[in-house]
Design goal:
single chain, 414 residues, alpha+beta, 15 helices, 2 domains
Amino acid sequence: MNLELFIARRLFFAKENKDGISNSVISIAIIGIALGMAVMILSIAIVTGFKEQVRKKVTGFGGHILITNYDTNNSYETAPISKAQSFYPDIENIDGIQHIQLFATKAGIIKTKTDIQGVVLKGVGQDYDWRFFEENMVEGSSFRVQQGNKTDSVIISKYLASMLRLKNGDYLYMYFVSEPIKRKRFVISGIYSTDLQEFDKLFIIADIAHVQRLNDWSEDQISGFEIIINDFDKLDEMTDIVNSRVGTIYEEGKEQLSVKNIRDNFSQIFEWLELTNTNVWVILVIMIIVGTINMVSGLLVIILERTSMIGLLKAMGAKNFSISKVFLYHGAFLIGKGLLLGNFIGLGLGALQYYFNLVKLDPATYYIDSVPINFKLWHILALNFSTLFITTLVLILPSLFITFIRPAKAIKFA
């Protein structure tokens, strides 16, 4: 039988503790740990949710990994490559790759009776994955590309539709720089909104056949391929795998290919997202320090209140280490109580935000319209175990105060 654990449990559940002088201090310590844990849970859930939402929106416009002509510059007027590549579409069979799809782009200008706006016409093929745009469709629907049957339907963003005073079903006139200038009429079949204004104001999605014709390309020529992977955390690993399969190919009569991932193409956005990690670490450190200080104060008060009990245990032959373990166990029980309360508060508030979107955000600033929540079990477990371990470990310091208590004096003044 673990005697120290038995005594600690009796102290924790003892009714007389309710009226002890340490009750107020302990209550404050428990509340401090509970609030700290709630704040840590919400901080990680919000930051990881925010990063996931923005990543999903950025990759929705261009996939995770991009394969283009090695000679292509950073503009949307790209050098073509052949879609008849040895890796297409078999590269989907590689573990970790979800889908590959072809695309082509052409810069152009939308002109209405009163407005003008520069945009990029992105052409997609039969293999295009529409799930991202269908999830963000606010009016109308997406179109389908069919072989040999070119469609004039396009989807545009709510931002562009509002700016240019267009609505679903309207004709859309675009002009393209060439000799002579080319003019093309499209019909709006759907309007989407991602709140990612930098992209919403730029892209119009159309049948790839239109872009090929505007660029004077053959049906075999495209701007490149977009690859969608299963796990964003493995982006660099999957980029290396794709590059080893694609970027090292030198086939006579074919273009040299370049492999880049979405982080390379939009480094500013992803560097900004990484900065949010610093904020989380600052919050975690502060909350753990506050919780530790509260528990150290509480344990010192408990030790002072139980001086007579400590003296009695010493008189009966108990060692300092054994008595210290009693109070360390007791402190761990109190910390556990605070953690349980903190989890209830943090998970409860997070669940309310997740299901009801109570706290709204300005999409123009944050790219999303409400505070996102992303709960991961391993995050919550790691927070609880690390807080319990660190706080309990620090409690060793106040427990050393026991070594200065003399049995004779402690029992004398009991």
